[in-house]
Amino acid sequence: MRVYGVTGWKNTGKTTLMERLVAEIAGRGLTVSTVKHAHHDTDIDQPGRDSHRHREAGAQEVLLASPRRWALMHELRDAPEPPLSDLLARLSPVDLVLIEGYKRAAHPKVEAHRGATGRPLLAPGNPTIRAIASDGAPDTALPVFDLDDTAAIAAFILREVGL
After folding, report:
1. Is 52 within a domain?
2. What is the secondary structure of 51-77 as a DSSP string?
3. pTM for the whole thing?
4. Domain with 127 in it
């Protein structure tokens, strides 16, 4: 499966860039899925809902299905977080999986960067970062794209993965 990531510090525009990349690449006729890594305790379920009650009762997995979508929730119950490769294996086949986060994972990435955050580039210490998408002109030997130039960033990613 072809995978490519978007990484960067908090508040650099990663999610907005991901959203635009999905729309751009899907608009080119390719199928795209996403993986979003969260460092905090996150829940897609709501207390009081039936599926939440099933999980709270001790279910290991709860599959919620409706006429419009389905979602599988898996409780780790103090088990370690699975590696990205295990999670990718659960996805249905698509042309490209875009991954938000997972700074240290081995897949190639574009770093989202905003000068206003005052944070340095991650790229100098991370060889998996292949390009920078920035609102400025950071000092780097890597390709730099305007953070808002979605078409150019998408074209770069698609070239990188051979699509």
Report:
1. no
2. HHHHHHHT-SEEEEE-SS-EEEEE--T
3. 0.92
4. 3-41+80-161
Query: Residues 58-80: pLDDT tens digits?
Result: 999 999 999 999 999 999 999 99
Distance in angstroms (rounded) separating the CA atoms of residues 161 and 158? 5
Q: Mean pLDDT over all residues of the chain? A: 94
Residues 6+ apart with CB under 8 A from 139: none
* Overall number of domains in the chain: 1
CA atoms within 13 A on the CB side of 56: 10
CATH of the domain at 143: 3.40.50.300
Q: Which amino acid is at 54?
A: H
Query: Considering Cα of 10, then 142, then 144, then 83, what sign does the dihedral take?
Result: negative
Strand partners, 146: 134
In a domain, 63, yes or no: no
Residue 70 lies in a domain: no
Judged by phi (left if over 0) then psi (alpha if -120 to 50, else beta), residue 132 lies in beta
